[in-house]
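idk why but the lab printer keeps eating my pages so im just putting this in chat instead. protein + acetyl coenzyme *A:
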Amino acid sequence: MISVRGARPARARLAALGAYAPERVVTNAELASRVDTSDEWIVTRTGIRERRFAAAGETAGDMAVAAAEAVLASAGVTASQIDMVIVPTGTPDAMFPSTAALVADRIGAHDAAAYDLSAACSGFVYGLAQAAALVEGGMARSVLVIGSEVLSRVTDQTDRGTCILFADGAGGALVTADEGGTATGFLGFDLGADGSGGDDLVLPASGDREAVPGGPVPASGCIRMDGPAVFRFATRIMVETTERLLAALGLGIGDIDLVVAHQANSRIIDHAAERLAIPRERIFNTLERYGNTSSASIPMALAEARDAGRLRAGDLLLLVGFGGGLTWGSTVVRYEPLGAEVPA
Ligand code: ACO
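predcted complex ->
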């Protein structure tokens, strides 16, 4: 990607969506055959009925390629037009090369800069914020943001507190410069991080304090979570970030056509919906069938909402992410699809 000073900045536009879910369906009954839990407990406490697990050897990079290709096909845009590929992920194929660099190569985005982004389940909204800033700063014209996760590989499948939640999948969006000058685009973002709660949700990495020079990555490299603490944070922050952003924009919840929140637990979303008085029909959830796919959950849900006819050109969307860090990110954006993507 080459960027020269003086390039004409334009409004950033949410132009296309795409997703990929691995084939293997893992039901609550299958988990209940391995750990001390039940379908009834999982459905009541989380809203999840089944989730997808990647095939052996299938990586976040592989799934991100499939999602990126779906986004490009929807948009009718070729990979050579892409200036930047951002992959929010907590489960990259490697710390380096970045998964984004591998994805850019495999889709044929040979002129693109590429990097991974670490903000756990807020990663997709953080990625959108960066894409919008790059476009509106005149540095890029087309940015792919693809969240992709293989959480099944970093979840202790004998720990009933986490194995029921985390799953695999990929989803993303194309953010483009509005050539026509008519787009509303991203109205605003509220992003934040509170590292004092970092210990509540941890996925160790190669720089772990317990790692020894020359030694292997710590064997205890699975997700550790204080479920109730994360639950309290998520319910509080989903309400706070939404109220703060809407107030800053001078909007009410009635102005929003569709709310897509990070798919962590239906009780978190129900709680926020009640506090914010969001009508049920304005919320789109996929938890029941996909579980928590972290940075992939919002774009997977968006693509599914589009395919289900729940997302129309011109709709004003509220997207809310929250998760490890602890982090949060919300945005209000108008869905302004490119010609090829426009839902029927
Ligand atoms: N099946 C049956 N019983 C269970 C299970 C299970 N799968 N898991 C926990 N329990 C038991 C506990 O042992 C406990 O038993 P006890 O009372 O005898 O000690 C009881 O159920 C209640 O446990 P809690 O942990 O208090 O249950 P809670 O209602 O909080 O639900 C859950 C647990 C689902 C993990 C919830 O806390 C949650 O969803 N937290 C948020 C997690 C989350 O969203 N994390 C991801 C954030 S995003 C990111 O960045 C990754």
